[in-house]
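User: Could you go from structure to sequence for me? I need the amino acid at each position, not a summary. Structure tokens:
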């Protein structure tokens, strides 16, 4: 027997529920119009297994619902995530944008830039974050997590990482290639996905700034100096070259890293404000 939610959504789609019109989604669901425009990333909690604790890293293409990554990680460190992403980028290319929540290792609730964000931005990927306490912002990934829990994790015990890997790979294959998806008009995710034309090279191209922009190298403790004043940019920028663009307001500068404004300096107050809202 199909789940209640499946029946409800089908009835809503065909205008069989009060207040609905055929062809108009009752939920206001949005998706990007092509693959690789947006990827959603998160960890699906963590649980014990024979080798310690597993932290499933998940990555989903917004347009096709194609699962790009389902990795049984043993921690949630930046280095671990980066290693998995390199494998994904080498296989599927680069997305235009990625979104994730504000937690570690990819976000910071204070609005400060993280090393993982800078690494993604260096690949030419725009980074966004879901609103705190609003998991529905990544609703497609949340649904994927519910299916993963119900069909793979719930009531199961895995003896080692090899068993976990095999279970994840098998389920991901079924999800991508075999199972019809209701939101895709019963097509499979793989039928709507194709790798990105933007290839990953691994070569880090240094930033270039316009003529007239002051360039400063951030020191080993995350600070830069301008006109004798030392200001803290943040540890994520250690060793990076940032551009300081003078504004119309006397003593004020915008801090740029590649093509992104990452902060604002006010020399009169001897202050710097770093963050995504600058």
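Assistant: Here is the amino acid at each position, in order:
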């Amino acid at each position: 027997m199909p789940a209640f939610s499946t029946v409800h959504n089908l009835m809503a789609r065909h205008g069989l529920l009060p207040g609905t019109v055929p062809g108009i989604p009752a939920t206001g669901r949005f998706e990007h119009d092509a693959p690789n425009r947006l990827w959603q990333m998160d960890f699906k909690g963590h649980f014990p297994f024979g080798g310690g604790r597993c932290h499933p890293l998940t990555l989903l293409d917004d347009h096709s619902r194609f699962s790009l990554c389902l990795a049984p990680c043993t921690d949630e460190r930046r280095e671990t995530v980066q290693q998995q992403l390199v494998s994904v980028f080498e296989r599927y290319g680069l997305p235009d944008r990625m979104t994730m929540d504000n937690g570690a290792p990819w976000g910071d609730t204070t609005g400060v830039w993280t090393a993982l964000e800078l690494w993604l931005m260096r690949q030419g990927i725009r980074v966004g974050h879901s609103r705190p306490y609003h998991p529905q912002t990544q609703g497609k990934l949340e649904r994927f997590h519910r299916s993963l829990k119900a069909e793979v994790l719930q009531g199961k015990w895995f003896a080692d990482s090899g068993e976990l890997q095999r279970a994840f790979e098998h389920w991901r294959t079924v999800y991508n290639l075999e199972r019809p998806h209701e939101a895709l008009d019963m097509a499979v995710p793989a039928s709507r996905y194709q790798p990105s034309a933007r290839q990953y090279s691994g070569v880090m191209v240094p930033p270039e700034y316009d003529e007239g922009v002051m360039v400063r190298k951030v020191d080993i403790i995350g600070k830069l100096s301008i006109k004798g004043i030392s200001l803290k940019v943040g540890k994520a920028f250690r060793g990076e070259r940032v551009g300081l663009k003078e504004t119309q307001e006397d003593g004020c500068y915008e801090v740029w890293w590649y093509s992104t404004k990452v902060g604002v300096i006010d020399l009169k107050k001897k202050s710097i404000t770093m963050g995504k809202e600058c």
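One structural detail worth keeping in mind: The first strand starts at residue 39 and ends at 43.
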